[in-house]
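Record passed on here:
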Amino acid sequence: MTLPCATYRLQFREGMTFERAAEIVPYLAELGISHLYASPIFTAAPGSTHGYDVANHQELDPTLGGEEGFSLLAEALKGHGIGLLLDIVPNHMAVSTANPWWRDVLKHGRQSAYASHFDIDWNAPKLLLPVLGEPYGEALADGKLQLRMDEETGEPVFGYYDLSLPLSPDSLSLLPDSDPDDPAAFGLMLERTSDDKDFLHQLHEAQCWRLAYWRLAREALTYRRFFEIADLIGVRVEDPAVFADVHKLPLRLVKDGIVDGLRIDHIDGLADPKAYLAELRKASGLNYVLVEKILGPDEDLRGEWHCAGSTGYEVARLITALQVESSHRDAMNKGWTGFTGNDAQFTSQVLAAKRRILTINLAGELDGLVRIAEAIASEDVATRDFGRDALRLAIVELASAMPVYRSYIDGDGASDEDRQVIEKAVSRVERGREVEDDRVIAFIASLLLEPTGGSSTRAQFVTRFQQTTGPLMAKAVEDTVFYQFNRLIALNEVGAEPDEFGLDPEVFHAAMIKRAEIWPHALSATATHDTKRGEDARARLAVISEMPQEWAAAVTRWHEAAEDLCTNLPRGPAPTPGTEWLFYQALAGAWPADLSLQDEAGLQELADRLSAFMTKALREAKRQTSWTDQNEPYEKAVEDYVRGAFAPERRSFLREVRAIIATIEPAGIINSLSQLVMKLTLPGIPDIYQGCELFDYSMVDPDNRRAVDFDLRRKLLHEVRDMPVTEAMERWREGLPKLWLLHRLLRLRRAHEGIFAYGDYEPVEITGDENMHAIAYARALEGRRVVVAVPRLVLRHCEPGRPSWISSAFGRTMLQLPSGSGRYRTLTGQVVEEREIPLSMVWRELPVAVLESA
C-alpha cells in the first residue's frame, strides 16, 4: 500500500453516513489529506452513536447506507486519490439480540454454533444477563416479565420492556397447547399466561440464560466484558474459526483494494496481541496496521509485533508536557492543595483507586482469578495452605501495583520486558506490606513468570490476569483519578501522566530520535474521539502552569464572588472547592475564541456543555456521586452553580473570568500552532481529528463528537489558499492561522514525502537569552532537510498587537541552522542563507517556523 501522508479521522453515525462522507471527500483532497481514517462502519447495536458495539462483523451498517452507500464512498475516495484506513473491533461485540451470533447463543446455549465465539464461562450454571432495573423477584411480581410474540421473527419470546429474548427449543414444550401458525389461537394462549407468575418463572428457569438485577454484573457476570460494560461481551478472536468470522468482511475490503490499512481497537483486550497481529498480517498481507495502545511513561511498544505502531496517544503527551512550565510544579501544588485540600500524591491516589475498582467494579473478574489460583495452589503440598483470602489480597495488590496496563506473556513464556514489569510490581507489593506473607506474593508471581508446563489452568490464569489489569488501569486512572487529581487538567489526558509536570527539551529530543528509528510510521495524534478535551483547549490550559499564583488567586476571587451560588447540603457545601477548581479550568479551556459576552445564545450553549461535562466528570470521579450511585442533590447543586455563573445578571462576574481567559489565550494560540507544526513534522503519520482544522475547544465525549460544519471549513479553505499569513493571524478568532498553517504543512509533506517518511530526526541548537523558550529540530534525508523552530512557555513574551505576537522578544535568541544544506525557504516565502539567524526573523509574520532546503 501507499504509506499515508496524513490521515483524517471521521466519526460515522450521528448524521455522518457513507453518502455524507463521500460529499466531503473533495474537501479532504483539497486540504491535502491522503487517507480517510474511518471509525467502525459495521452494523452496530440499534441506536449506537459510535460503532464500537458491533452487532454484525459481516455487514456494513444499513443505517450508514449499507453496501450501496459504501460503494459511493469508495468511488469518491478512489476518484480523488484518497486511501482508507479502517477502525475494527476484534475484542468485543454488542450484547444485543440484534447480534445474530449472540441471539443464537441465547436460544441454543452451549449447542449454538457460536457458543465458542464469545468468552463465556460455560461451567457456570447459567448465562447471566444483568439487564433488569430491579431484582428479578420484583420484576416478576410487578408483571414486568412477560411471554409475547416477536414481531420480526414470529416466535414466542421472553420480554422485559423493549427487550425480547428468544426461548430455547426445548422449553417450548412448556407452552400450553396452541398452534403457533394460528395467530389468534396463539394470542389467546399468550393472554392466558400473561399473569401466571409461576408459569413465567418456570419458563424463565428452563432457559440457558438467567435475567438478573444490573448491579449483579460487577460480581457474578459469566462472560468477559469490555472494561466494566456488561453490554459488551468479549470475543474469542484467538480461536481461528472466530478470527475468520470476525475478519471476513474487513479482509474482503482489503483484498478488493478498498481498505489500505487497519486500526485495531483495544489491542490490550486480546488474549495474545502478538499472535493476533501475526495472524492478521498473514491473512491480510497488510503492512500498515496500527494498534490502539496506551503506553506508560517508560514503556515501549513491543518490537516483535507485526504493526506500524500505535495510534499516537504518546505524541500528544510529549507535546503537552513540553508546553508545561516544570519549574512551577511546587507553586501549582501549593495553589491547588491550598484551595481544595486535595492530596498531591498522584501515585497513592492511583493505588487506592485501583484497589477499589478491582474489589468493587471488577469483583467478578477478581473472583474468577482467585478461583483459578486457589485450584492451582491446592494441587501442590507447598502451596495448599494458602487461604482464599490471602490469595485474593495478593492478586489485588499485585494487579494494583502493575506499572503499565498489562504484560504480554504468551505460550513462549515471559519475555525480559514482562519479567521486569512483574518483578517491579512484586517489589512494590513487598514494600507496601499489605500482604503479610511474601510466599503468597511469590506464588502468584510464579503463575505468571514460570512456564505453565502444559497446564491449561495456569495458562488460563495468565490470560485472565493480563486481560484484567488493562481494564483495571483504564478505569482507575483514566476514568477515576483523572477526574480527582485536577491540579492541571491539561495533563489529564489519555496516554498522559498527570504527575509528569513538564518535560525538558533533551528528553523530548531523545524520544523523537527513538521514534524515528523504531516507529517512524506510527500515528501522531493530538485529538481523538477518546481524548478528554480538545487539542486547543489542552494547549490553552497548559499556559496556566506559567502563572500558578495568579490562577490560584483568581479562583479564590471567583469562589468568594459566587459564594451565594453554593448550596448547603447535609454532607457540606456544593460544589466542593475541588469541584470549583475543576469547573474553572474546564471553563477556561472550553471558551470558544469567537464567543463574546454579548452573545447570549452562545453563552447559554456553553453553559449547557459545561453542565453536561461537570455531571460526567463528577460521576467518573466517584467521590460525591457516581454512575451507579447518583447523588442527585449534589449534581443538581453543581448544575445550578454552573448555570448561575452564566446568568445574565452575573455578567460582571463572567467578565472577570473572561479577562483571565483573555490573559492566557494568546499564549494558548501559540501553543496550538506549535502543537500543529510538531504533529505535522515529527516522526510519524499526522492524524487530523474531524473538525480540528479550526480551533477545537471541546470537552470529553460526547462533546468532542459533535457534528462538524464542513461547509464552513470548505469556505474558509478557499479563502486561506491565497491569503497572506498576516491576514490569517488577524482573523485568529475564526481559527484561520491554524487552517492556513495546516494547509501549507500538508502541502509540504507531499513535496518532501521521503524526508517525513524515512528521514532522521536531528535536534537543532538554539542559543541566546530566551533559548529555553523555544525548541528546534530537523528532519533530514540524503542531505536535504526541513528545519522546525517553535516557541514554548511564552506567556510573558506575548504582545498580540505586534506581528506574530512574540517576534520582538526573540531578537537575541539565535537558531543555529545545520550547515551544508544551502539556502532555506520558510512557509511564508522568506529566503534564509545565514547559518545563524534570530528567531525574531523567522517568526516575523508567524509565531512558528518551518524551513525547507531551497
Notes: The longest strand covers residues 774-781. The CA atoms of residues 90 and 237 lie 7 Å apart. DSSP finds 29 helices and 29 strands in the chain. The mean pLDDT is 95.
